[in-house]
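[User] At your convenience, examine this fold.
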Amino acid sequence: MHGLRHTAASVWLGSGADPKVVQRIVGHASAAMTMDLYGHLIDQNLWDAAKKLGGTTGAPKAIEAGNDEPPASEIDL
Protein backbone atom coordinates (compact mmCIF):
# COMPACT_ATOMS: atom_id res chain seq x y z
CA MET A 1 0.00 0.00 0.00
CA HIS A 2 2.84 2.41 0.84
CA GLY A 3 4.33 1.84 -2.63
CA LEU A 4 1.08 2.89 -4.28
CA ARG A 5 0.94 6.03 -2.15
CA HIS A 6 4.52 6.89 -3.12
CA THR A 7 3.77 6.26 -6.80
CA ALA A 8 0.61 8.37 -6.72
CA ALA A 9 2.38 11.31 -5.07
CA SER A 10 5.24 11.00 -7.56
CA VAL A 11 2.90 11.00 -10.56
CA TRP A 12 0.87 13.96 -9.27
CA LEU A 13 3.90 16.12 -8.60
CA GLY A 14 5.66 15.03 -11.78
CA SER A 15 2.66 16.10 -13.82
CA GLY A 16 2.49 19.51 -12.20
CA ALA A 17 0.02 19.12 -9.33
CA ASP A 18 0.13 21.75 -6.62
CA PRO A 19 2.37 20.45 -3.78
CA LYS A 20 -0.14 21.68 -1.18
CA VAL A 21 -2.86 19.54 -2.76
CA VAL A 22 -0.61 16.48 -2.85
CA GLN A 23 0.37 17.13 0.77
CA ARG A 24 -3.27 17.01 1.83
CA ILE A 25 -4.01 13.89 -0.21
CA VAL A 26 -1.10 11.87 1.16
CA GLY A 27 -1.59 13.16 4.70
CA HIS A 28 1.70 14.91 5.32
CA ALA A 29 1.89 17.53 8.05
CA SER A 30 3.21 20.16 5.63
CA ALA A 31 3.88 20.77 1.96
CA ALA A 32 7.55 21.14 2.93
CA MET A 33 7.57 17.52 4.02
CA THR A 34 6.00 16.47 0.72
CA MET A 35 8.56 18.48 -1.24
CA ASP A 36 11.43 17.09 0.84
CA LEU A 37 10.35 13.58 -0.14
CA TYR A 38 9.25 14.15 -3.73
CA GLY A 39 10.67 17.55 -4.77
CA HIS A 40 13.33 16.02 -7.00
CA LEU A 41 10.52 14.89 -9.29
CA ILE A 42 9.57 18.42 -10.29
CA ASP A 43 13.02 19.75 -11.21
CA GLN A 44 12.19 19.36 -14.91
CA ASN A 45 8.90 21.22 -14.39
CA LEU A 46 10.86 24.18 -13.02
CA TRP A 47 13.10 24.31 -16.10
CA ASP A 48 10.07 23.95 -18.39
CA ALA A 49 8.39 26.88 -16.63
CA ALA A 50 11.53 28.99 -17.02
CA LYS A 51 11.62 28.22 -20.75
CA LYS A 52 7.98 29.28 -21.11
CA LEU A 53 8.82 32.57 -19.44
CA GLY A 54 11.83 33.13 -21.65
CA GLY A 55 14.74 31.47 -19.92
CA THR A 56 16.66 32.73 -16.95
CA THR A 57 15.95 36.44 -17.52
CA GLY A 58 12.19 36.02 -17.90
CA ALA A 59 12.23 37.84 -21.24
CA PRO A 60 10.99 36.07 -24.37
CA LYS A 61 13.88 34.70 -26.43
CA ALA A 62 13.33 37.18 -29.26
CA ILE A 63 13.81 40.11 -26.87
CA GLU A 64 16.89 38.48 -25.32
CA ALA A 65 18.33 38.20 -28.85
CA GLY A 66 17.78 41.92 -29.46
CA ASN A 67 14.62 41.83 -31.56
CA ASP A 68 12.07 44.52 -30.75
CA GLU A 69 8.98 42.33 -30.63
CA PRO A 70 8.59 38.70 -29.60
CA PRO A 71 6.77 36.31 -31.94
CA ALA A 72 3.02 36.03 -31.31
CA SER A 73 3.49 32.46 -30.08
CA GLU A 74 5.57 33.74 -27.16
CA ILE A 75 3.11 36.50 -26.27
CA ASP A 76 0.07 34.22 -25.95
CA LEU A 77 1.32 32.05 -23.09
